[in-house]
Amino acid sequence: MTTRTRMNVYFAPDLLAQVEALALRRQVSKSAIVEAAVASFLSGDSSDRLEAAMSRRLDKLGREIHALDEDLAVLGETVSLFVNIWLSATPPLPESAQAAARAKGAERFEGFMQTLGRRLATGDRFLKELSRDVDSLPDSPSQDQFEADGSVT
């Protein structure tokens, strides 16, 4: 049986609340939590633990950057494909219709910006929606099925 010596210490109220919450979550005594924290503080392997924690965080950041890179590539390809198809399929307008087309384009752009603002405010993201839509498709057309004019064969 290990003998223990009593020691009275003082904690800031918020720190004591954190110790109590951790003790409840782990179902151990507050003394065990404080003893483990002091032992960890006094042990020489704290730099190894810090390095391991930092390595885990860097690995996580690397995975997140990779996911963002993939998302950015999908967005770039999406915009590129849209512009290619739109430019290929849209005939030039005669001079007499250009003013009306500019006005209609400004109106549509305003609607686009309002819709974009609403989607960004709600957190609904295109790539999440896209992945849900793609997963639900039985067979999607492959890249080589798109013709120069943008139609699917």
Structure description:
The chain is mostly helical and 153 residues long. The chain folds into three domains: 13-43, no CATH class; 46-90; 93-133, no CATH class. Helix content is 72%, strand content 0%. It is built from five helices and no strands. The protein has helices at 13-26, 30-42, 46-89, 95-122, 126-136. α1 (13-26) packs across α2 (30-42). It is elongated and about 95 Å long. The model has no long low-confidence stretch (mean pLDDT 84).
Walk me through the topology.
Layout: H1 13-26, H2 30-42, H3 46-89, H4 95-122, H5 126-136
How do the SSEs run, as a string of H and E?
A: HHHHH
Mean pLDDT: 84
| Uncertain regions spanning at least 5 consecutive residues | none
> Would you count the extended β strands for me?
0
Query: Largest sheet, described in full?
Result: none
- Return the domain count: 3
Rg of Cα set: 30 Å
Q: What level of helicity do the residues show?
A: over 70%
Structural class: mainly alpha
Strand coverage percent:
under 5%
How many helical stretches?
Answer: 5
Overall 3D shape: elongated
Protein name: CopG family transcriptional regulator
Region (Disordered): 132-153
Organism: Phenylobacterium haematophilum
